[in-house]
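Hi D.,

Good news: the full-assembly prediction came through. Inputs first.
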Amino acid sequence: MMEPLLDCSPLEGGSGTMRDKVAACCSFSTLKAWLPILGWLPKYQLTWLRMDLIAGITVGLTTVPQALAYAEVAGLPVQYGLYSAFMGGFIYCIFGTSKDVTLGPTAIMSLLCAFYIGNDPVYAVLLTFLSGIIQTSMALLSLGSLLDFISYPVIKGFTCAAAITIGFGQIKNLLGLQNISQQFFLEVYDTFHRLPEARVPDAVLGLLCLSALVTLTLMKSSLGPGPDDLPVHVRGARGLVWALSTVRNALVVICATGLSYSFEVTGQHVFTITGHTAAGLPSFQAPPFSETTPNGTVITFRELAQDLGDGLIVIPLMGLLESIAIAKAFASQNNYRINGNQELFAIGLTNILGSFVSAYPVTGSFGRTAVNSQTGVCTPAGGIITSVIVLLSLAFLMPLFYYIPKASLAAVIICAVTPMFDYHVVAKFWRVKKLDLLPFLVTFLLSFWQVQYGIVAGVAVSGCLLLYHVARPQLKVRDHGVLVVELDSGLRFPAMQYLSQTLFTKALMGECHLSATSKDNLRPSVYDVVIPWSCVPVSPPRSVVLDCCHVSGVDYTVVNELRDLLRQFQQRGEVLVFTGLSHSVLQDLLKAELPDFEHMESVEAGLQAVSGKTFHDCHG
Amino acid sequence: MMEPLLDCSPLEGGSGTMRDKVAACCSFSTLKAWLPILGWLPKYQLTWLRMDLIAGITVGLTTVPQALAYAEVAGLPVQYGLYSAFMGGFIYCIFGTSKDVTLGPTAIMSLLCAFYIGNDPVYAVLLTFLSGIIQTSMALLSLGSLLDFISYPVIKGFTCAAAITIGFGQIKNLLGLQNISQQFFLEVYDTFHRLPEARVPDAVLGLLCLSALVTLTLMKSSLGPGPDDLPVHVRGARGLVWALSTVRNALVVICATGLSYSFEVTGQHVFTITGHTAAGLPSFQAPPFSETTPNGTVITFRELAQDLGDGLIVIPLMGLLESIAIAKAFASQNNYRINGNQELFAIGLTNILGSFVSAYPVTGSFGRTAVNSQTGVCTPAGGIITSVIVLLSLAFLMPLFYYIPKASLAAVIICAVTPMFDYHVVAKFWRVKKLDLLPFLVTFLLSFWQVQYGIVAGVAVSGCLLLYHVARPQLKVRDHGVLVVELDSGLRFPAMQYLSQTLFTKALMGECHLSATSKDNLRPSVYDVVIPWSCVPVSPPRSVVLDCCHVSGVDYTVVNELRDLLRQFQQRGEVLVFTGLSHSVLQDLLKAELPDFEHMESVEAGLQAVSGKTFHDCHG
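Then the structure:
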């Protein structure tokens, strides 16, 4: 979004007193922040309308076949895909901060939902409603920044794994195989095991659709921007290729359905087809808060929510993650900036209202957003056109959807998820930062078990790496007679024991060995402390200059341990001098009134102070 | 411990080839690292024996009454306290790396165990065995450093809360109150509500014991080190006071038991007494791996372990935490260094073997370790003396323990836990680092619900504060025409979005407003990207010098976002120059082959490069 949520810059108000200005901007500007449509609608131009119309129709023709196909992935009747595909356009148009993002059913979301809803639309719709509530609440609490903790390797790991899982899951539909297990590894086994049972017509149609889609995709990518001075007929041909390849999903599904229809009306059941679907628009009704099973048992809201379990965390977060990642990518490509929290608010609202029209959880779709952006959409109004096309399909085309061959939908999905499998990324991690392969691989491999487990494990691994860096800062030790120890990063409580142990070993103990203590240490009186349990340092103890110029803050644990460390240096007649402390850290240490605390501006001054023993006069 | 676990320093071997030296040190030195007794026993001196004997006996006289009392806290028959108190001395003598630490039942551990074992010794002994296995495994995997993530405020928070919980829990025994609830808040209510029902003899005895203990403690603390030239009778008097106050627990319990005995033998049941206990030494037998309930049902090992639940994490970790904290404190005070992993190994082994003599989980006891240190113990051999005293009590004194008044044990516990309630710490946090009050208070308050919940919540809060610092580094922005942005600490993936957003807003967008784009942006062809959705910057875009001298490392997420950021600067004709990168970070960024990447040694060079636009010749 262009404006921060509470943009009170005086630029917005006109003339008048400061109070007026603040009042003015805190009303309209705040409203505009929550309703970005107020920012662009008043400036809407007719040239934009043409572009929005073209983009809206193109995306609509991609949305309808994808929505039907993804409903299959989610384990729901196909019409639920369309139920989920139109609310986003209306809501996002009002609340969205990106011109490109298209909300609706997506491959990964469908895969995740399939796990939690167990083919039951009641669970799907309730999950949508609750996810919406959670996302909206997160937006109101500005919790969108939690996504900062999902690193790039984790995102890539689960996207690659999901692409394989989803893509491979469609092989059975592409080949017309029956009785294939749902669990990925069993699915792979079953698919290969039952390969001889493939239905030939399905397989032929599926592979034909797949080749058509691949060919059109390749044609589009080889098109490139032409010079401006092409003759009219060349430009027309280029335009045609572009148009055909852009609506390729619709084209392929329509052709396949036509073929299937012509067989079916002559009584020949050649292809595995979608079959009966509910016709017409969904009714607008409150989401179900209880369910009555066929044998009359009533499942209460509490039980439904318990069954959804951690889906109530995974689905809202993944919806948020996917949508924001896409919005950011296209905002960056098209040179604008989105507002993460407002995006979250828009998704949440779409899900809440979507649950009233029997939608399953939606998020931003990468493929359709790319189509939208490439077709040159100008404002989110394009989404309204897309939604209208979906609604028209629901109202008038549902009887025809009966004839859609499942193999053609499978081909659409396989082509949609293939680009998600970005294997180049492994080489990039290897070249730039090998350690990042660890969270990537953990996420990737565990995602085949369950995508959500993969993500959780990946976040945990990258969190551990993060904490390891905090707990084990690199210490550069230089020997100038006096030891100069430089901390390469911050100093927080998990690092303190490590620092203290290192200083103690390097400066005070060296490599030392337990010794019988000399007799004069053993005081005769039993009520005094005696120290026979000590060690003979290999080298004499040395003073230390601790260069803290990279330390940006300390906590009480650090202060407490430093006090102890200073005492130990003092006991051995050596000193520990701090250098390069920032103002705030120095203040914290002075407030702690550490005994024998010395601070110098630079390492040189510190060394001088130690060697000349002149530092006793310049405390603080 | 004095030696690192794999100390292969050539100092250890004699003459001979390098290979011989390595072979020699990797056998005996490694063995000595695992068996620290080999380090000190060969050097054992007779003078040490005298000190160890005195200390061992003194600690033994404290251990016996405390062990009996803490068993009460753990909800077990009193003899279990003694069963738990002798194994530590033998094991720690062989494997321990501190001369002072005394392992045995402690107040906090007893409180924690009470929650998990539900007054059933079978659960207690199994918990000991499993905790020992977990602790030993952790030691072998060098996981002791996990404790680094428990910060000082969290430790103080739970210690203070535990002191109040344990101390207040003994008021009912001190006053002879009956039917008091276990849950802390109900306990407080019940105790005050039933105050009029207090048994007068118990209350009188309890308060007498308490005043005796307090008086003796005060006498000891006011004793101080006297001058060396005192006359013999003054020194004798001082020695007597010191001895009496050191064995005050035993003294008070013996006197109270004598009083109670004299009443009981005359048939008068005046005090609430301990009652029947199992006599004699515990049998040496494998810990129970199943339990048969009175009605004949067999509870399997699996069920027992499930019932223990998160106790299998809490008890080993808290045991470790308490013991290491104590070992470190006394090592620091007495000028030696312990080895955390070896300490963990010693506790784990003590628990494993303890479970064969029906012990409940043990750890280092602060109070008894302090007595040990103050009495001038020279080696861990003192622990053997202590253990022998406990064994002798078990063998011969158990019939007398029947008569110990519960009020006297309550007084012992109250006096033992009072110093743990360190309320000064709040003022210290307030003065030095107010933010550290948050984890302290969270831990403190939640610990009244359950100590383990308090600790978990406290660790979580301090972890969140830590991650917040990582995710939101301070950015110092200075305006030299060109913006100079200085990162105050490391740059890891959670901080990257924040940095990128800040740079974008400050340098490229300013406060900007959505605009109708000028027509020339709108290309006529539909298959080219158009960008009408952009904003008019209030101020013109500016170049940035990013001072990374505090950045110690980057990950792939950072590199990836920097690539995007560089592209955005380049699109607007501005530059983003990095300065002060360390060698390793620079290498990582060069490996990533970022387009338009510029690096300068210093901010001045960076500024010059930007303003003179001379930087195009000095890539990398």
